[in-house]
């Protein structure tokens, strides 16, 4: 029996709609959330991503502040810009697009951002707050995964969750979020002994390793919920294709539900960036955090 397909496009549309509705309510009170995105250099993929962020930010009714700097800009100049954005009351969220040019210290730049405006959730203070179960800004991709899991499964308490991948951007924060939901969590990786057996024990399997089709269907527990974070470009049949870290065709025959690639986790990243900006704005104005999950059906 084929798995239900978790529709990330549909779910992200619902999140963006709730963000836009909340922004409209804030505007009625004279408050306008603002997101500043800083792009250094001419990386084509980053340019497309930043452009899409700007479009969706404006569509949600927020202010979009875009700063495009030459690749030769000094780190001191970039840090000065970050300092100005930190001090600007119209800016509630700051995102410095990665990767940065090789002459820059990305960690120093990220940690120069006001933690309360760190909508990427990469600042060391937010990492520490998340790791200790306190209120923080949460990295966008893991947040998107969690929202889809809770929409699909409801209460996650007691479920066995395996996160394959230990990056600071996805793997580690994903594990922390699942722990906070009272899952029993295993972080696995390329050096895990008998990785297949570890994966087969998962009620929730999150793949975030950056290796195309690394996880075949016979590693998936029957009925498990599979979240595939991987986005890998491969050449197949003379064409370039996007595939995940999970072998979708075989896994979809075993899993209870699975995210496709593309169209699964990917659309959630910008949606959660907007959600984090809204959250940052609410907190800056002493308002409750917004509700991000509705009741729409997200599986096909």
TrEMBL record:
Residue span(s) of domain Tetrahydrofolate dehydrogenase/cyclohydrolase NAD(P)-binding: 139-283
Ranges of residues in domain Tetrahydrofolate dehydrogenase/cyclohydrolase catalytic: 6-120
Annotated SUPFAM superfamilies: Aminoacid dehydrogenase-like, N-terminal domain (SSF53223), NAD(P)-binding Rossmann-fold domains (SSF51735)
Example of a GO MF term: methylenetetrahydrofolate dehydrogenase (NADP+) activity
Superkingdom: Bacteria
Residues that hold NADP(+) according to the record: 165-167, 231
Pathway: One-carbon metabolism; tetrahydrofolate interconversion
E.C. code: 1.5.1.5, 3.5.4.9
Reaction equation(s) it catalyzes: (6R)-5,10-methylene-5,6,7,8-tetrahydrofolate + NADP(+) = (6R)-5,10-methenyltetrahydrofolate + NADPH; (6R)-5,10-methenyltetrahydrofolate + H2O = (6R)-10-formyltetrahydrofolate + H(+)
GO cellular component: cytosol
InterPro entries on file: Aminoacid_DH-like_N_sf, NAD(P)-bd_dom_sf, THF_DH/CycHdrlase, THF_DH/CycHdrlase_cat_dom, THF_DH/CycHdrlase_CS, THF_DH/CycHdrlase_NAD-bd_dom
CDD domains, A to Z: NAD_bind_m-THF_DH_Cyclohyd (cd01080)
Keyword annotations: Amino-acid biosynthesis, Histidine biosynthesis, Hydrolase, Methionine biosynthesis, Multifunctional enzyme, NADP, One-carbon metabolism, Oxidoreductase, Purine biosynthesis
Subunit-structure text: Homodimer.
Protein task: Catalyzes the oxidation of 5,10-methylenetetrahydrofolate to 5,10-methenyltetrahydrofolate and then the hydrolysis of 5,10-methenyltetrahydrofolate to 10-formyltetrahydrofolate.
Family designation: Belongs to the tetrahydrofolate dehydrogenase/cyclohydrolase family.
Entry protein name: Bifunctional protein FolD
Organism expressing this protein natively: Paracoccus aminovorans
Gene that encodes the chain: folD
């Amino acid at each position: 029996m084929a798995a239900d397909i978790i529709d990330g496009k549909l779910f992200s549309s619902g999140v963006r709609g709730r963000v836009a509705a909340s922004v409209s309510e804030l505007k009625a009170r004279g408050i306008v959330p603002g997101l500043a995105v800083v792009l250094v250099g001419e990386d084509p993929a980053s340019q497309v991503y930043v452009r899409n962020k700007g479009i969706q930010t404006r569509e949600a009714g927020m202010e979009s502040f875009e700063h495009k700097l030459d690749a030769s800009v000094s780190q001191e100049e970039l840090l000065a810009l970050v300092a100005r954005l930190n001090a600007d009351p119209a800016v509630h969220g700051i995102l410095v697009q990665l990767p940065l040019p090789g002459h820059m210290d990305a960690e120093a730049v990220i940690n120069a951002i006001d933690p309360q405006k760190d909508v990427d959730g990469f600042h060391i203070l937010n990492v520490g707050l998340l790791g200790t179960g306190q209120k923080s800004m949460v990295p966008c991709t893991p947040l998107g995964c969690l929202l889809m899991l809770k929409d699909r499964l409801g209460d996650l308490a007691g479920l066995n969750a395996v996160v394959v991948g230990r990056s600071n951007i996805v793997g580690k924060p994903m594990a922390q979020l699942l722990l906070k939901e009272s899952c029993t969590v295993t972080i696995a990786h390329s050096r895990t002994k008998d990785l297949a057996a570890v994966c087969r024990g998962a009620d929730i399997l999150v793949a975030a390793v950056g290796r195309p089709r690394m996880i075949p269907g016979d590693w998936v527990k029957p009925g498990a919920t599979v979240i595939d974070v991987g986005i890998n470009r491969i050449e197949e049949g003379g064409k370039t294709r996007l595939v995940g870290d999970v072998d979708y065709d075989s896994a979809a025959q075993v899993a209870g539900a699975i995210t496709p690639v593309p169209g699964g986790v990917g659309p959630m990243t910008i949606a959660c960036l907007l959600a984090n900006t809204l959250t940052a704005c609410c907190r800056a104005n002493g308002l409750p955090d917004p509700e991000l999950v509705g009741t729409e059906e997200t599986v096909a």
